[in-house]
Amino acid sequence: MSFLDFLSALLLVPALFFFVAGTVALLRFPDLYSRLHALTKADNVGLGFAVLALMLRAENGVEVFKLALIWGLVLAASSTVCFLIGQEAVRRGLKPWTRQSP
Amino acid sequence: MLLAMVWLGFTGRDVSSWIAGAPAVLVAAWISARLWPGVRWRWSPGGALAFAAYFVRESCRGGWDVARRALSPRPDLSPGLISHPLRLPVGPARHLFCGTVSLLPGTAVVGITPDRIQVHVLDQSARVQADLRELERRVAAVFGITLPAEGGAP
Predicted ipTM? Predict the structure, then answer.
């Protein structure tokens, strides 16, 4: 196992951690709005680490570029979808969960 | 041009992929030209680099923040909606701002009106307001914009 392979495997550990944490957050957070946070933030960082790990294993520059592109597009899509879901929830009058309410 | 590069990035040099790719690029270019007629992009490479570094750092903080709250025995949340006045001009700067707010710690955009955005926050504290202003300042630096003073008319 070369040094790069080792580094790549090492980067997959935080990637896995953030994906698991994001999923746990999705299950445990109290309402739609806070679950949106779980999806946009934890998963983006998880994907970021996974993409970095895969970049180290890429055959050539084109693959590195492709991976960077995928990450950028996923970020843009995730942010846009988060906004659209949030906006629709507000439009329907869904009240955010607050600490005071039971 | 940019879109053609995106497609090239995905498919490599496989010529046959352009049967689907060329029309897709043209249609996407046409739509974006229709949606933003004559938008001039003025940006500073230094500001963009600084923004990229800031973005990566804040993304990690955001991910860690969600992870910490999710894995703590009793999720530490006091969420709520806040309204933040927009000081960036309409156009790419505002798009970049609204697009990145949702990716930064504890904030998610749930509504945009011409002069304010509604943001859902995981933790209602002064920290969030300061973070939003900081992001606004950094976006302005990318596009070489001077922000109007706090509370002033946009």
Answer: 0.79
